[in-house]
Amino acid sequence: MDESERSNPVIQLNEVFPGDTNARNTLFGGRLMSIMDTAAGMAASKFCSEDVVTISVDALKFKRPAFQGDIIRTVARVVWTSPRTIGIHVTSCRLSRKVWNPEEICSGFFFMVAVDGSMKPTAVPQFTPNGEEESRLHRMAKQARDGMRDGDS
Questions:
Q1: What are residue 109's DSSP bridge partners?
Q2: Under a CB-based contact definition with an 8 Å cutoff, are residues 129 and 123 in contact?
Q3: Coil, strand or helix: which one is 37?
Q4: Measured in whole angstroms, how far is the alpha carbon of residue 125 from the centre of its chain?
Q5: How far is Cα 94 from Cα 133, in angstroms, rounded to an integer?
Q6: pLDDT at 6
Q7: What is the pTM of this model?
Q8: Could you tell me the CA-to-CA distances from 150 to 32, 45, 55, 60, 114 in Å, in that order?
Q9: Residues whose CB is less than 8 angstroms from the CB of residue 95 and which lie 6 or more positions away in sequence, other chains included
Q10: In Å, how far are 30, 97, 118, 122, 129 from 133, measured between CA atoms?
Q11: Fewer CB within 10 Å, N- or C-terminus of the chain?
Q12: Rounded to an integer, what is the distance from CA 108 to the centroid of its chain?
């Protein structure tokens, strides 16, 4: 698979069930983070063809709620890499069953490391931004990652 195919976005759909909601029938923030983390992991694994683990989440912004019965459409795409780390920008939108118009509810950056069978970090292919939007997200992910002090980059 070439780089452009590897870096195509992963799109995931989930329904908000009663067990996913709080007393106000809105989606738990932790459940949404789990959905987003899963999509980020799929995008990273597709990009590097390896198992990946989440090492950090940055700039996660909750913008509005989703409600029981809504469909959550999550789009995850690789936007940045270092020798062992993959940065994925993830956006989730709610879609009501009556009006299938996407309404963004949350976005942020997830960072993953590819690991071998012994859970040791492995090298990943490098991402090259193509176009203005990819370059903008690449800069934002790099700034988010540079702000972290765990020394993984």
A1: 58, 89
A2: no
A3: helix
A4: 18
A5: 22
A6: 85
A7: 0.92
A8: 25, 22, 10, 19, 16
A9: 70, 71, 72, 73, 101, 102, 103
A10: 28, 30, 36, 28, 8
A11: N
A12: 7
Q: Is residue 151 predicted with pLDDT exceeding 80?
A: no
CA distance 20 to 29: 9
Residue 50 has pLDDT above 50, yes or no: yes
Q: Which pair of structure tokens corresponds to residue 17?
A: 């069930």
Question: Quick one: DSSP state of residue 23?
Answer: T
Alpha-helical (H) ranges within 1-153 are 3-6, 29-48, 132-146
User: What single letter denotes the amino acid at residue 143?
Assistant: Q
Closest CA to 101 of 70, 139, 77: 70
Write the CATH number of the domain with boundaries 3-146. Answer: 3.10.129.10
DSSP 117: T
Q: Kind of pairing, strands 10-15 and 103-115?
A: unpaired
Length of the chain: 153
Q: Count of CB atoms within 10 A of residue 20's CB?
A: 21
Q: What is the mean pLDDT of the chain?
A: 93
Q: In this structure, are residues 84 and 114 in contact, taking their beta carbons and an 8 Å threshold?
A: yes
At 50, list the tokens. 């390896």
Question: CA-to-CA distance for 81 and 109, rounded, in angstroms?
Answer: 12
